[in-house]
Fold:
Amino acid sequence: MFLALNEILKEKSRFILITAVIVLVSYLAFFLTALAYGLASSYTRALDSWQASSIILNENANNNIARSLIFETDYKDLVDDTTALLGVSTATIDQEESEDVSLFGVESESFLIPELESGRAIDAANEVIVSSELIGAGIEQGDTVNLQGSETDYTVVGVVDRSTFQTAPVVYMQLDTWRTATGEVSGMMGMRDATTVSAIVAKADKDYASDSESLTQLSIDDFVFALPGYQAQVLTFSVMIGFLIAIASFVLAIFIFILTMQKKSIFGVLKAEGIPSSYIARSVMAQVVILSIAGLALGFALALTTGLLLGDKVPFAFNPLFYAGIAGVFLLCAAIGGLVSVRSVTKIDPVEAIE
Structure:
């Protein structure tokens, strides 16, 4: 360790350059991970608050809740204390600045509504609870909002924290209100059936749809992966980050190997003086670990600062487990790369190196 630190202090410019490369690459890895996790979370924040086991859709909806319509004749025997009716559609809030939203039709006391951050529950038609993203966009509690294509005014009576579905802020309303709003914004006169819902969400871990030819049941995880674009987005970012870590580790190993070869004569002198190869090898590995940890720490600090500066402008979210995993994989790959340099150290012939 003494030899490793002493060399780093004496050859500052070289090691600063290596550290800068690690900082930039790790910063990019942490930044992309935060973006990927934030984007994935924005697809499912509203669903995560349910703490549900499964969701029941129309058999012909191809697992797409936007195409699912279920009627009371299908779900009347499934409703109990562990299930909740849900209507889902999309709309655009027509304010000074338009904002696309997901409309969730729910029962007033449904577990599908997250804990309120402020305000009160819905207790009348045309009252809505909105996600805090809309508050950030200029809509205040108590305001009246309108949806494009609808002449109905909706009063904001409550706010929930960052509830989003497929990246759009969620607006919660009563089921009857949702049916009317969905009909108006879509240009239809109204729902074909006054009992229409999009899905039934179940907390209990049991089979609800086995006896029905018109319904299908999915676990929440399967439903999330079936959301349009979700799986492709997760896989794309995962492959990008994986290759980035592998390439960064390889670059670090090349730098360490080149530096080791440049010091071949010095190591030869040390070995001629009786210093064992194991000590020199430990010094090389110590340099790899020190540079990697320093670079990762600075890269993480830069990513954290960037996230704070961006605020809510992009879907940016931190997950400590992901970052710990990335740092661990990076250190492991860098250590494996450093072993190549260690192997070259152990093969140095003192006589040839001095010559």
Q: What stands out?
A: The first strand starts at residue 54 and ends at 58. The first helix runs from residue 2 to 10.
